[in-house]
């Protein structure tokens, strides 16, 4: 059993295509909040002033004296109230007799979402009043004592309506949004899945969890790195985009098998569905080849996969970068459905259709097609028009067919066909990427397709000295349902080769990496690794519309914390120790005027 | 069994008082590298191109064909070499027959610390050549094939001598230092102990591992927070000193039981044995009181404690802040030994000794003593002199007696008495701290003794409105062998009380915390928590002289990464997107001249 049953039970109540229905309501989840009696469940009441959680009580608890703590979900006619904690809901009977007047007063006057502690007896509900939709629906609590732990002011809106509100409002009141079932589920599933990954790596396969610094030196071309001013004038730390250098240095240091759930930083300005800080499952090992890393990751995902989903089948299929582009028009294909791109040039070799003749007469000219299954049945005339328009709009983009494939899938799904089952998880390895790409600014120069530490494909090493553009790398990407969720490579462990690639091919300043080059000279073992994007992975597993739904306190797409209003102004005197001044845009205009 | 036996076996080879002998040599540890056959051991060879680790081979492997990867530790007369990996050492026989000339060439010519892969057969050593000090000492490897995976250039010094070198050199070549037994042991123990803590919190007690942001807003009085410029002119993130606000907001969000192995940041400039980034085991829970948190932590340490040490005995003793000061002269007493401070005023009430009369005649005047056990036997005349001088030097410091107690302990140990057994771990809770302290700059104003979210002692709430200086708090410190390794408190969950303390008593600008105050208004549950300093804890457990010895890539005491030379200069054009300029010290002089 991979997952605590209470969590998976909790999940089953979610309607299936959650990707499109993101407003689960506590009420609809009653039946799913089944507390299992399995011994693998954690003890939720240890060290606390309660005896039980609200959600765990059943007929088996009848007659027990319990103390519960929770939030008032709602109250009915001053006779009942429903108390909520993370685990579920329970009905509490408000005593009506004179001797319990003070208890009645507390429970009737406390506003909704106030926090109370109640003690009383678990009793059967009167016949006919059971609620079969509620896991605790056979019982209720006859209260003896009650205490108002904290009164709640009037909320900006009801907790159950949170998912319906604008995201800005949800982020501003994140601490209220977190009370929603969906956020509780997402964060708890994330915690559990990471814990299983740790067990697999650390306990089963001898990996060492090592923390690496985040205050580091800038990396070559690290234009997306946040800076941290130090107390030395003009000297800055950088917040690295990944522990890449450190994990390679750990291999040189003989640590052999490293992993870390690593916080990484990337300053991309405003980008939708990106976060300035994000988390990756960062892995590196020595004496390994590409297939070794792939098997490790397949086992990792299989082991940590939530057991309320279909088990992960391994090994994952593999396609080369070239095949992926030819077949799906993208290097991160969604393989939950077919509609592959097919070369039909031969069919038209002798055609008299002018534009096809033109295409085929050009060097490397081809005619390609996508077969839309039952397209004639599902697609309407205006759909065909929109496909035609889409194609025209994206004309001359080599990724056109890949985009068209997804566009057609969207259209088919709009018309009721299920192409991309949200409960299906289709993993795919993409391998044999090119080692270099032409630089965008200057296509005669090369840049690393991934990063400069990626080892060339063993068969292509000779090409580095003749036609480096043609060299393939030992980089591999892991794709899930059309999303890149991880990437890694076998690294260069030979200092001479690393120097040649950095200095001669990439024309980088090697001084900035002298420590790494020196380390490779001192007995670096062959090594390789991978990093999985945890936020994206959990987002896909939970079917969330955004990675912000699987992060407790995310930034807005502009990089703001809408709750606390970060980033914020800093008094000039607090900048002094760091020897920096703000260059106000007006200042710089004034300077230019000089 | 708490700890993988291979790790604890490995440990037992360390001579006991490691605090003082920090140069463990691989050679002396042979006998401790016993590979247990227990099934709890992780699989170290999965996914790798080796069949076995060097350190695991025994007579039970005789006749097996094995492939090993490792570093050449040393070579003897071109007939043997010793191969090392993280797990231990094994003897490899260099073949001498003509047909294996290429193998011989590789193994004889590769410099020490080169990385090789060898394949061959596990055989018995010839009679009389066994090495009982070496766990693999009964066997050797008859090599058939060998491959030089990476040649090593001449090292700046031998790996086994690393601990003897200056720390600056060790930090500069950290990737070599990491190959030392002690660093391997420290980092692996750290990983294991944290893993056990996670199991305890997550699997046994239902805590949720939640990541909180490190790019946040500055906190009141956050003068020690690093700044991170954003792309908005004049707006900065801060790197928080702890997830304090977030963990409280998680409680408001109903997450109930939170933990995180949290990266924290503190810019204290140059401080010995402090790091600009450090790690804490960060915990918060709802519906808990002080004793609940204490029991939780006692259980946590008991569960995660390395099993090569004496088990942790719970509950830990508790003293109040006042008692600690009176008895030990410090709020973090080392309770491994007695020598308590005793009030002997009554003995001297009628004394005629002038300076004692003087002391006793003053208000609150007391005479206190420390009894040094067998002092007369152990201490020499010059020791007494040095005690007298120490007392004179620290005259008028209220912590004098506490310091004197430790000074005397040092002296006794120099003379051969064992007072502070390095294998003894003496935990202590210190409770009932004052809630406020007078501000250093202006003693009429108050500042929080710990932080402004600390709840007052239930018996002292009325004092907040009359004599706040006298109010005790619900803060608790955990002390181990005279070091503070953790601290926490029950928090204020009442918005009105929090506002009163912030605005009226502390005179803080409450605007900067408006989100937290608002959160308390919306049904915040009673909650409390704690943070353990992981670096310090592991430092004490491993008996390391510095926290730098339990961190893979620490900064020097000036905050430098000596390996990569961080912090570093940044080209002015890379500062532009952040709207900052460097204020060079010469500039500011020029400005002052205006």
Automatic annotation (TrEMBL), chains A, B:
The lineage of its organism: Eukaryota, Metazoa, Chordata, Craniata, Vertebrata. It comes from the Eukaryota. InterPro entries: Aa-tRNA-synt_II, aa-tRNA-synth_II, aa-tRNA-synth_II/BPL/LPL, Asp-tRNA-ligase_1, Asp-tRNA-ligase_1_N, Asp/Asn-tRNA-synth_IIb, AspRS_core, GAD-like_sf. One of its GO terms (molecular function) is nucleic acid binding. GO terms for biological process: aspartyl-tRNA aminoacylation. The keyword Hydrolase does not apply. Residues 187-554 form the Aminoacyl-transfer RNA synthetases class-II family profile domain. Belongs to the class-II aminoacyl-tRNA synthetase family. Type 1 subfamily. Keywords: Aminoacyl-tRNA synthetase, ATP-binding, Ligase, Nucleotide-binding, Protein biosynthesis. NCBIfam families: aspS_bact. Pfam families: tRNA-synt_2 (PF00152), tRNA_anti-codon (PF01336). One of its GO terms (cellular component) is mitochondrion. This is Aspartyl-tRNA synthetase 2, mitochondrial.
């Amino acid at each position: 059993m991979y997952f605590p049953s209470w969590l998976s039970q909790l999940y089953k109540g979610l309607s299936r295509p959650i990707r499109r229905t993101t407003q689960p309501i506590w009420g609809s989840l009653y039946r799913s909040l089944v507390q299992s009696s399995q011994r693998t469940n954690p003890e939720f009441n240890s060290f606390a002033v309660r005896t039980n959680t609200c959600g765990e009580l059943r007929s088996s608890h009848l007659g027990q004296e319990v103390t519960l703590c929770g939030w008032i979900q709602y109250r009915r006619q001053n006779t009942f109230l429903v108390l909520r904690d993370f685990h579920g809901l329970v009905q509490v009977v408000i005593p009506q007799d004179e001797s319990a007047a003070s208890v009645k007063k507390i429970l009737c006057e406390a506003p909704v979402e106030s926090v109370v502690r109640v003690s009383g007896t678990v009793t059967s509900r009167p016949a006919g009043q059971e609620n079969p939709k509620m896991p605790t629906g056979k019982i209720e609590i006859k209260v003896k004592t009650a205490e108002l732990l904290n009164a709640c002011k009037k909320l900006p809106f009801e907790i159950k309506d949170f998912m319906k509100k604008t995201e800005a409002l949800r982020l501003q009141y994140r601490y209220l949004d977190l009370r929603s079932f969906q956020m509780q589920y997402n964060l708890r599933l994330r915690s559990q899945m990471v814990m299983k990954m740790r067990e697999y790596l650390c306990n089963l396969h001898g990996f060492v969890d090592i923390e690496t610094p985040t205050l580091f030196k800038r990396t070559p071309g690290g234009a997306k790195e946040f800076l941290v001013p130090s107390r030395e004038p003009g000297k800055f730390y950088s917040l690295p985009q990944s522990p890449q250098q450190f994990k390679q240095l750990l291999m040189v240091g003989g640590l052999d098998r490293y992993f870390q759930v690593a916080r990484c930083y990337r300053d991309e300005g405003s980008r939708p569905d990106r976060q300035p800080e994000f988390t990756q499952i960062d892995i590196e090992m020595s004496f390994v080849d590409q297939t070794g890393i792939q098997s490790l990751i397949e086992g990792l995902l299989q082991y940590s996969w939530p057991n309320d989903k279909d088990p992960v089948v391994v090994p994952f299929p593999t396609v080369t970068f070239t095949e992926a582009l030819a077949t799906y028009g993208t290097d991160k294909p969604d393989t939950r459905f077919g509609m592959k791109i097919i070369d039909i040039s031969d069919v038209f070799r002798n055609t008299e259709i002018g534009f096809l003749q033109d295409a085929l007469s050009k060097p490397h000219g081809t005619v390609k097609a996508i077969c839309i299954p039952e397209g004639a049945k599902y697609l309407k005339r205006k759909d065909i028009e929109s496909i035609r328009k889409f194609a025209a709009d994206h004309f001359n983009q080599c990724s056109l067919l890949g985009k068209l494939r997804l566009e057609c899938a969207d259209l088919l799904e709009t018309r009721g066909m299920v192409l991309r089952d949200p409960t299906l998880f289709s993993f795919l390895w993409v391998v044999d990427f090119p080692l270099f790409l032409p630089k965008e600014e200057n296509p005669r120069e090369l840049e690393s397709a991934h990063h400069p530490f990626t080892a060339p494909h063993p068969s292509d090493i000779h090409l580095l000295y003749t036609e480096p553009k043609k060299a393939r790398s030992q980089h591999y990407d892991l794709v899930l349902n059309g999303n890149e969720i991880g990437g890694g490579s076998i690294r260069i462990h030979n200092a001479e080769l690393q120097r040649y690639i950095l200095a001669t091919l990439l024309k980088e300043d090697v001084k900035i990496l002298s420590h790494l080059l020196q380390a490779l000279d001192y007995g670096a073992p062959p090594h390789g690794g991978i990093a999985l994007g945890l936020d994206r992975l959990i987002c896909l597993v939970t079917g969330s519309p955004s990675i912000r739904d699987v992060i407790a306190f995310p930034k807005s797409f502009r990089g703001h914390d809408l709750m606390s209003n970060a980033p914020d102004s800093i008094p000039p005197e607090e900048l002094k120790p760091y020897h920096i001044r703000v260059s106000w845009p007006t200042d710089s205009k004034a300077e230019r005027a000089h």
